[in-house]
Amino acid sequence: MAEPAGKIGIIGSGLIGQQWAMLFSSGGFEVVMYDKDKNALAAALPKIEKQFSDLSKNNRLRPSPLTAAQQLQRISVTDSLDACVSGCTYIQECVPESLELKEAVMKSLDSVISPSCVVGSSTSTFKPSLFTSKCDKRARMVVAHPVNPPYYLRLVEVVPAPWTDADAVDLCVSLMRQIGQAPVKMSREVDGFSLNRIQYAILNEVWHQVDQGLISPADIDVVMKEGLGPRYALMGPLETIHLNAHGVRDYLQKYSKSILAVSQTLDAPVLMDPESKTASVLQSHLEKEIPLEALGERTAWRNLKLAEMAGAKSADPLYKA
Ligand SMILES: NC(=O)c1ccc[n+]([C@@H]2O[C@H](COP(=O)([O-])OP(=O)(O)OC[C@H]3O[C@@H](n4cnc5c(N)ncnc54)[C@H](O)[C@@H]3O)[C@@H](O)[C@H]2O)c1
């Protein structure tokens, strides 16, 4: 077995920490996971072993020069933060989504990491300036936001704070490419990064259409999964409009007036109140379709299908990541 490509530290050994550990080990790195909860830490390796074994059985391991057993061998756990970060070129922070906690964890990393080490935070919602401002090594800290489940979905949003070094961003981006992820680099921080700004725009419109009785909850999911979704899975909204006319300029010549006219009728965002009538309509529809006790089984099915799609795309020479 070849020498490890380097050492990666993972802070927080929950759902996302485990997936990052699997991704970095598949890329040939040595991975050390740290968690302040000893029970969580003890459970992490058996959970990873089970995931590797299921993926292996279904022939769904990520492409790697290493076997599943070799990848597992590259992952270890420690209850010492110093031992975790010592010798790391990169650290992925994966503690729960609390601003106070992220700030405290970054501060504790600040005093133990080497000056060249880069720390990427998995945060889904916090701009990096909100939790790195008090760190001496804040120029080495960035957001590296994965999409759940990262083992099957390759997007990573890399988001700098105003003080993040350009070379720290570049190191994070190139590391993500090295492990087979699809990083996108934002030029500056913004609430929601890119993905959630788009996702929330969609959710707002979905809410209004159901709330106003324009369409049923069942049909709104059909609009996405049988209409927009499959095209976007292959080529995104921009290549889609490029193909929907004779190039993007022709598309805009033909449709930009209608796009503006429709867009001007869109309703402003409202609080999607969980106690509202619309929320009850959505809950009863979805519970009828997928009872709460079947969510685990449905998630496993979704993950398997995502892996199949990822496999089909990467095997296609015409697919552009
Ligand atoms: N779950 C998702 O769908 C998803 C997707 C993308 C990003 N994220 C982000 O990833 C991060 C982790 O989410 P998760 O779902 O893995 O959470 P999780 O609750 O499954 O795991 C968090 C782990 O961090 C540990 N922890 C808590 N405080 C700690 C500390 N001070 N030091 C070290 N470890 C500590 C906990 O013991 C736990 O094992 C969050 O910021 C979340 O927003 C989650």
TrEMBL record:
Task: Give the UniProt record's GO annotations in the biological process aspect.
Answer: fatty acid metabolic process
User: What sequence ranges are listed for the domain 3-hydroxyacyl-CoA dehydrogenase NAD binding?
Assistant: 7-188
Q: Which residues form the 3-hydroxyacyl-CoA dehydrogenase C-terminal domain?
A: 192-250
Q: Which GO terms describe its molecular function?
A: L-gulonate 3-dehydrogenase activity; NAD+ binding
InterPro entries recorded for this chain?
A: 3-OHacyl-CoA_DH_NAD-bd, 3HC_DH_C, 6-PGluconate_DH-like_C_sf, 6PGD_dom2, NAD(P)-bd_dom_sf
**Record keywords, A-Z:** Oxidoreductase
Instruction: Tell whether Transferase is among the UniProt keywords.
Output: no
PANTHER family membership: 3-HYDROXYACYL-COA DEHYDROGENASE FAMILY PROTEIN, LAMBDA-CRYSTALLIN HOMOLOG
Family indicated by similarity: Belongs to the 3-hydroxyacyl-CoA dehydrogenase family.
Q: What is this protein called?
A: 3-hydroxyacyl-CoA dehydrogenase NAD binding domain-containing protein
